[in-house]
Amino acid sequence: MKLKKIHHVAIICSNYEVSKDFYVRVLGLKPIREVYREERGSYKLDLEVGGQYQIELFSFPNPPERASYPEAEGLRHIAFEVEDIESAVSYLKKQQLTPEPIRIDPTANKKYTFFADPDGLPIELYQY
């Protein structure tokens, strides 16, 4: 078996409209397809990042909470590449978000920061 690339990341949100607004309006991801799955009482929104389908945003009735801190067990975070981290941080602050201070990756000598989505999912911005 040879893995070619990551196909998508699936995110289950607690408030579909709030998260949809966050990922589409605030982060600027492009909606590809949105469906309501009546049998599951669930929306599914496929989002495009950088010209590729990469994020599935789901709603489910009463999903259980899960610890979602960068150092918790399980999926650690989702990371997006940006060209200019300082302008990205400035933009996030204008959107009433609170990114962490910019840090330097000691191995790659690259700048990065974290902030959270509406459900507290850690999101990393990495200047490559």
Which stretches are low in confidence, meaning pLDDT under 50 for 5 or more residues running?
none
The oligomeric state is single chain
H/E element order = EHEEEEHEEE
Q: Output the strand order for the largest sheet.
A: 1-4-3-2
CATH C-level label of the largest domain: Alpha Beta
Structural class by sheet pairing and helices:
alpha/beta
Protein name: VOC domain-containing protein
Organism: Neobacillus mesonae
Pfam families: Glyoxalase
GO molecular function: metal ion binding
Give an account of the 3D structure:
The chain has 128 residues and is an alpha/beta fold. The chain folds into 2 domains: 1-64, Roll (2,3-Dihydroxybiphenyl 1,2-Dioxygenase, domain 1); 65-128, Roll (2,3-Dihydroxybiphenyl 1,2-Dioxygenase, domain 1). 16% of the residues lie in helices and 38% in strands. It contains 2 helices and 8 strands; from the N terminus they run E-H-E-E-E-E-H-E-E-E. It has helices spanning 16-26, 85-94; strands spanning 9-13, 30-37, 42-49, 52-59, 78-82, 103-104, 111-116, 122-127. The protein has a 4-stranded mixed β-sheet, covered by helices on one side. The mean pLDDT is 89. Residues 5-128 form the VOC domain. Keywords: Metal-binding. It comes from Neobacillus mesonae. This is VOC domain-containing protein.
